[in-house]
Known about the structure:
Layout (H helix, E strand, L loop, with lengths): L17 H19 L2 E2 L5 E3 H8 L4 H6 L1 E4 L6 E4 L4 H10 L8 E10 L11 E10 L4 H18 L5 E6 L3 H16 L7 H6 L4 H4 L8 H5 L10 H16 L5 E2 L11 E8 L8 E7 L3 H4 L7 E7 H10 L11 E4 L6 H13 L4 E3 L10 H10 L4 E4 L2 H5 L2 E6 L16 E4 L4 H4 L6
Parallel strand pairs: 1-5, 7-8, 12-13, 12-14
Antiparallel strand pairs: 2-4, 3-4, 5-6, 6-11, 7-9, 9-10, 10-11, 14-15, 15-16
Helix pairs in contact: 1-5, 5-10
The chain binds adenosine-5'-triphosphate and magnesium ion.
Amino acid sequence: MAEKLSAVKGMNDIAPPASAHWEWLEDTLRALMRRYGYRNMRTPIVEPTALFVRGLGEVTDIVEKEMYSFEDRLNGEELTLRPENTAGVVRAALEHSLLYDGGKRLYYMGPMFRHERPQRGRYRQFHQFGAEALGFAGPDVDAELIVLACDLFAELGLTGIELEINSLGQAEERRAHRQALIAYLESHADLLDEDARRRLHSNPLRILDTKNPAMQDMVNAAPHLMGFLGAESLDHFNRLRSLLDALGIGYRINPRLVRGMDYYNLSVFEFVTTQLGSQGTVCAGGRYDGLFEQIGGKAAPAVGWALGMERILELLKEQGRLPEVPAPDAYAVVPDASSVPLVMPVLRALRQHGVSVQMHAGSAEGMGSMKSQFKKADASGARFALIFGADELQQGVVSVKPLRGPRPGEGAGEPLAQVSRPLAGVSAWAGSLRQH
Ligand code: ATP
Ligand code: MG
């Protein structure tokens, strides 16, 4: 036998029944985005490497060590599997002048790739759902995106997700803060660990993110960016806060929230839970007014977030909120292989009337015993068995046998009885099989 092949480490297959949960989450997201007026945007999974180097910034975790980059063997182009999709959406918006007639509200979902150490909630191929509002400068859209995420969590039935917000101000404000921060950290050089020393001049803000307990007190007392914000930045932040208040959305200001990508300014936010271990950020985003220019386009304000679909599904599981996997409405029991040509058109007509029906599939020897067919019908979870016996077919009917009681919420009425239905004109009774 040939050597067994398996999936790449950190990249998962999603098979039934779990794939049904993914479809349900995707459907929920699409329906919600329609209500908020966001439209679908699809960009390639492979982009020029330069897009991420320029868009995300060279001294970011992603660009420094997480990208799947390679050279196209045929033409030598430097390419990268997208580690995130904001840069791709902005590239596409520029390439197709999507903002020519005003701002655009967009959403995407799909696989992203980062070479990280695989663990619970952290994979090398993972899936993000993202919402981006391009061309809008005001804090109203920031608030809209936040309330949209809150509505999503509520609709999914999730609890215990907390919102943290911060303002990163503008580049000049960050520069002034950075200088003060470096001076402060230098004055505590004896407390800095190796990682912090390495980042002192390249990315001092990230030092505030340290998990090193010996450095906590020192970083807690470091100068806050908030103290360096000018009137305009503060006004943007305060207007966002009053909108959140008006919407009744609770939040915590986290002055240490800096986000991993260089492109953020003004509002940044994260939705976090304590129920997923150390991978507790389920959704994260912020404003990125500089990104259009950074990748060579005309400046345009923008704000967005991305949520980790694996983490959301994990949390749904944790909280017992995953829906039941849908079963077919009916399972067709076909005692004799010679009736299959009669049965298949009837099943087709039922499906055309919206009934989901699974046909018993025979083997090379025949259809198998009635007993084994009923066992399969039961295991399928179908609510009805459709019995296409020789007697039934003779009379031009099919027997509809209930396999299960009423669904929860339908009330425990009369137990359903077995009935005969005419094969001609299934439209008259198809509705009685359909899930309501
Ligand atoms: P983290 O701090 O957990 O590494 P991040 O700041 O790198 O997150 P973003 O780039 O902001 O994450 O991505 C948005 C969301 O995508 C995260 O909040 C998380 O839910 C999800 N996510 C990011 N990286 C992964 C991964 N490797 N596997 C699964 N989900 C991920
Ligand atoms: Mg990361």
